[in-house]
Amino acid sequence: MSAVGWDEFDHVCMARALELAEQGQGQVSPNPPVGCVLARDGEVIAEGWHDHLGDLHAEQAAIADAEANGIPTQGATAYVTLEPCNHHGRTPPCTEALLWAGVGKVVIAAEDANPTVRGGGVDYLRNAGIDVRQGLMEAEARQQMAPFMRWCERRRPLVTMKAAIDRNGRVDSEHEAPGRFTSEESLDAVHELRRRCDAVVVGVNTVIRDNPQLTVRRVPLGEGKQPLRIILDRGLRTPTDCNLVSDAGETVIFHSVGESSGLQAEVVCLHSHLGSSEEGVDLVQLLDMLGDRGIQRLMVEGGPDVWCRFLDAGLVDEVYLFKADVDLGEGLDGGINAERLNHAGLTLAEETECGDDTLQIWR
Fold first, then answer.
1. What is the sign of the dihedral through the CA atoms of 165, 168, 171 and 177?
2. What distance in Å separates the CA atoms of residue 203 and residue 350, rounded to the nearest whole number?
3. Core-most of 35, 57, 87, 289, by most CB within 10 Å?
4. CB 172 within 8 A of CB 331
5. Which of 227, 252, 228 is nearest to 238 (CA)?
């Protein structure tokens, strides 16, 4: 339904539900972040959100909040960012919880995109006599849950690319050892972005040049988990002593050869064979395989060859581009410019300061 008929209080309550849902980001995958507000007689009486996997769902958490404060929920309106579930999973159905609480009306931002449950929650509630309205702040809710929505609709992860370049578009200096040139604030932002992703991918050249860890370190991990690390290494050139092989984290090396090429025997089991061309591992096949594994958001961290391959194939959904006001001199060009981004179907959505850097978000 359209936004016609929604009053200011409706918007306030749903905006608050979306704000609450943010607290579950990076902690609830493969579930989406969901928030819920209970209101009655023009006042908010309880709030809840899905905090981490296995915890109460948002509706259940809001009902529990009301109970903890001795507030009756009979006749309340529930504002929920996603259609309440109507199936048994890690928790009982939220539809049953709402009926048990005596809620009289449910306002939903977005329908559940999962084809196995789509519409089931709405139908159940309506059949039970609950007044259900849909579509309030739907665009905002779908954007907040974009990785979940993409996975449900296409069984592929949402692809987020992160890149950092100097004022001339370069990523490395040929006269100095590889190193970070962006601000501390930008580094924090990258770790927060990484925390919200299920997996991160780099090319083997980045592994050889930078020896990254690709873990969440500078921001609290909370109830989340470290992302799956992925190396695109068609010829299995990954050093046996690199961080991504030698530490305790989970790493998958996608390649196109049938031998370990010197990699440790215990690491061979992490390999996954994919088709490839002269350019490298088949990216479409990679996304399909990750989708089958339940990966909903993939972060493409580097380097330039991998960035450009994803962009030129039209596989990138959003780009976080950190532009530092420094000059690295002669060196490796990142290949990232407005023309390439536009050609990939992306437009500049936001531009903000991040410490001494400029952060551009393209979608």
1. negative
2. 27
3. 35
4. yes
5. 252
Question: CA torsion sign, 52 to 58 to 59 to 60?
Answer: positive
**CA-CA distances (angstroms) from residue 69 to 13, 58, 76, 298, 357?**
19, 17, 15, 40, 45
User: What is d(CA 148, CA 270) in angstroms, rounded to the nearest whole number?
Assistant: 26
Contact assessment for residue 314 and residue 349, using Cβ atoms and an 8 Å cutoff: no
State the DSSP string of 47-113: EEE--STTS--HHHHHHHHHHHTT---TTPEEEEEEPPP-S-SSS--HHHHHHHHT--EEEEEE---
Nearest to 112 by CA among 80, 160, 79, 159: 80
Kindly give the pairing relationship between strand 348-354 and strand 297-302: unpaired
- Give the integer Cα–Cα distance in Å for 63 and 76: 10
Measured CA to CA in angstroms, residue 90 lies from 52, 85, 87, 351 at distances of: 11, 11, 10, 40
Strands, E, within the chain: which ranges? 35-40, 43-49, 77-82, 105-110, 131-134, 158-165, 199-203, 228-232, 251-255, 271-273, 276-277, 280-281, 297-302, 318-323, 348-354, 357-362
Q: Residue 227: is the preceding peptide bond cis (ω within 30°)?
A: no
Q: How far apart are the first and last CA of the chain?
A: 26
Is 59 one of the annotated active-site residues of the chain? yes
Identified catalytic residue from 19, 43, 59, 339: 59
pTM: 0.90
pLDDT tens string for the chain (363 positions)? 334 589 999 999 999 999 999 999 999 999 999 999 999 999 999 999 999 998 999 999 999 999 999 999 999 999 999 999 887 666 778 999 999 999 999 999 999 988 766 668 999 999 999 999 999 999 999 999 999 999 999 999 999 999 999 999 999 877 676 778 899 999 999 999 999 999 999 999 999 999 999 999 999 999 999 999 999 998 888 998 999 988 888 888 888 765 545 554 344 334 567 666 667 788 999 999 999 999 999 999 989 999 999 999 999 999 999 999 999 888 889 999 999 999 999 999 999 999 999 999 999
